[in-house]
Specification:
alpha+beta; 3 domains; elongated; 5 helices; 56% helix; five-stranded antiparallel sheet
Length: 160
């Protein structure tokens, strides 16, 4: 991206907007560097009105919320970029160009509910849990010996 002369400045107050040449075409750069702004500092637009609108939006947010907000906006933008990267990867991997973030979250939510239902169905009854415990703790004993062991263990019968 090559910036043109200062005469191409469309908005001279912070954040500046200027006409730039990028990849052989022209566009508009919103330059929010300086003024203690810590958010994303450069935005490129193909439309002059969009660029001016973005510059005014940044200026009003900065005046209204201050420096801390710009840090938050940068973090928020980075999270957004990461989500966009993951969505792009999923679109490519699953060959679904129409995939949107809402679909991803809806599918995730649906799958989590299904997994929870499956897990709840696998919870054994008390009787089955008791049988399983006996099998694990006393694998080689006969049923009568297990009953005797449990009675002795829990005080219903004294040792012979």
């Amino acid at each position: 991206m090559r910036m043109l002369d200062a005469k191409n400045l469309i908005r001279s107050t912070w954040p500046r907007v200027r006409e730039v040449k990028k990849n052989g075409g022209f566009g508009y750069l919103v330059d929010a560097r300086g003024n203690d702004w810590e958010g994303k500092d450069r935005f490129f637009f193909h439309s002059k009105t969009e660029a001016i609108k973005k510059a005014k939006e940044i200026e009003s947010e900065f005046k209204k919320f201050g420096v801390e907000y710009s840090k938050y906006k940068l973090d928020e933008y980075r999270v957004y970029e990461n989500w966009e990267r993951l969505l792009k990867k999923a679109k490519k991997e699953f060959r679904n160009p129409d995939l949107v973030m809402e679909d991803v979250f809806n599918d995730f939510y649906f799958n989590q509910k299904q997994n929870l239902r499956k897990a709840q169905r696998k919870i054994p009854t008390i009787r089955d849990a008791g049988k399983q415990w006996i099998k694990e703790k006393l694998p080689n004993l006969e049923v009568k010996e297990v009953a005797l062991f449990l009675c002795i263990q829990y005080g219903n019968i004294s040792k012979p």
